[in-house]
Write a structure and sequence with these properties.
Largest sheet: 6 strands, mixed
Organism: Gilvimarinus xylanilyticus
Strand content: 5-15%
InterPro entries: 3'-5'_exonuclease_dom, HRDC-like_sf, HRDC_dom, HRDC_dom_sf, RNase_D, RNase_D-like, RNAseD_HRDC_C, RNaseH-like_sf
Number of strands: 6
Mean pLDDT: 96
Shape: flat
Function: Exonuclease involved in the 3' processing of various precursor tRNAs. Initiates hydrolysis at the 3'-terminus of an RNA molecule and releases 5'-mononucleotides.
Number of helices: 17
Pfam families: DNA_pol_A_exo1, HRDC, RNAseD_HRDC_C
Oligomer: single chain
Keywords: Cytoplasm, Exonuclease, Hydrolase, Nuclease, tRNA processing
Length: about 375
């Protein structure tokens, strides 16, 4: 099938409305985005690309003022939205449209289930399935510039031009393998995760060195991380421009009492010191005054070395099982889920990670629980 890649530019509300009405009658459309995020917390949409099997359309988010037809299309359960490696695209849509494209079919996820390889890029997938080379020359373009160059528009169109053909080939393979329902479950989980509210109060758990802090330091870290998350969003600036993790950790560790003590901590930007220094000291003081009974517990340290052999045993077993069923081991279980097994065992009751349900439980979970128990009991 030959798909014309010369794109149609869409920059007025009426044209978008007519196209969305037409696309609402299709079984599937290909979707992609181009965006910028160098100086902001939130992504700024530069383009929304749609391929419908007949042509490629570049929707200009800077010109469109009424996105309601697109929102309606995104929420239409009868139209599958086909994207590739879509986590960042979903964030763009959440910010721009306050809506997510569902039902979703992520061709990167599908390719892994179909045996094409884990985390395969779009160009690699098109090359493997269609024998077509896609240039990569415009990946670092300024997508907010207007007008876009011919090279930019052609590049953007190519991102959706072949996607529905790839989708069709993957569908056929997955149906033959009996794995299409697994892919649908994964894609549904992606949408659910993207739609889930973000608990900013838990941001401190991602601080790499937080486990070294005593409880009072953890209390300060909680407040400092929450402040950084809230302010980065409110000011729409990257977290690290406000305060990087290392100086944030140092504030929680040293608990400075005054501005002079705060200034002695390396890595705090001058603007953050001048604009936010007083508030940072207030947060530290709150942690200092917190009663012992209200202090949080220490954070979990890295896994002890004695669990290393058990981890290797579990990973080797998973690799063997993955090879037997023809799936990448990374698709079956994540590193943090191995750690969950170890930590739950150390706490007194081995517990399967929440994600090891459905098809994962059938092909992995039941036996992995026994393998993990045997391997971890040897540590004792």
């Amino acid at each position: 099938m030959h798909i014309p890649t010369e794109p149609t530019w869409v920059d007025d509300n009426e044209t978008l409305r007519q196209l969305c009405e037409r696309w609402s009658g299709q079984a599937a459309i290909a979707v992609d985005t181009e965006f910028m995020r160098s100086d902001t917390f939130y992504p700024i949409a530069g383009l929304i690309q749609v391929g419908d099997g007949h042509g490629c359309y570049l929707i200009d988010p800077q010109a469109i003022t009424d996105f309601s037809p697109l929102v309606e299309l995104w929420q239409n359960p009868g139209v599958t939205k086909v994207l590739h490696a879509c986590s960042e695209d979903l964030e763009v849509f959440a910010v721009l449209l306050d809506a997510l494209p569902a039902p979703l079919f992520d061709t990167q996820v599908a390719a892994a289930f179909a045996g094409c390889g884990y985390s395969l890029g779009y160009a690699g997938l098109v090359r493997e399935l269609l024998g077509i080379e896609i240039p990569k020359g415009e990946t670092r373009s300024d997508w907010l510039a207007r007008p876009l160059s011919v090279a930019q528009t052609e590049y953007a169109a190519l991102d959706v031009a072949h996607l529905l053909i790839v989708y069709g080939k993957l569908l056929k393979t997955l149906k033959e393998q009996g794995r299409l329902a697994w892919v649908h479950a994964e894609c549904d989980a992606q949408i659910a995760a993207a739609a889930a509210p973000n608990d900013l109060s838990q941001a401190y758990l991602k601080a790499g060195l937080g486990w070294k802090l005593p409880p009072r330091g953890v209390a300060a870290l909680q407040q400092l991380c929450l402040w950084r998350e809230q302010e980065a969003r409110a000011r729409n600036i990257p977290r690290n421009r406000l305060l990087k993790e290392q100086p944030l950790y140092e504030i929680a560790r040293r608990l400075p009492e005054d501005y002079a003590g705060l200034r002695r901590i390396e890595g705090i930007p001058k603007r953050t010191l001048s604009d936010d220094g007083d508030h940072l000291l207030q947060l530290v003081q709150q942690a200092r005054e917190l009663p012992e009974s209200q202090l949080p517990t220490r954070m979990s340290p890295p896994l002890a070395r004695e669990y290393g052999a058990a981890m290797k045993t579990m990973k080797a077993w998973v690799r063997e099982r993955a090879e037997q069923i023809g799936l990448p081991p990374e698709l079956l279980i994540r590193k943090k889920e191995y750690e969950h097994l170890v930590r739950s065992f150390a706490a007194g009751q081995l517990e399967l990670p929440q994600r090891l349900t459905g098809w994962r439980y059938e092909v992995l979970g039941k036996d992995l629980q026994q393998v993990a128990e045997r391997a971890l009991q040897e540590v004792r």
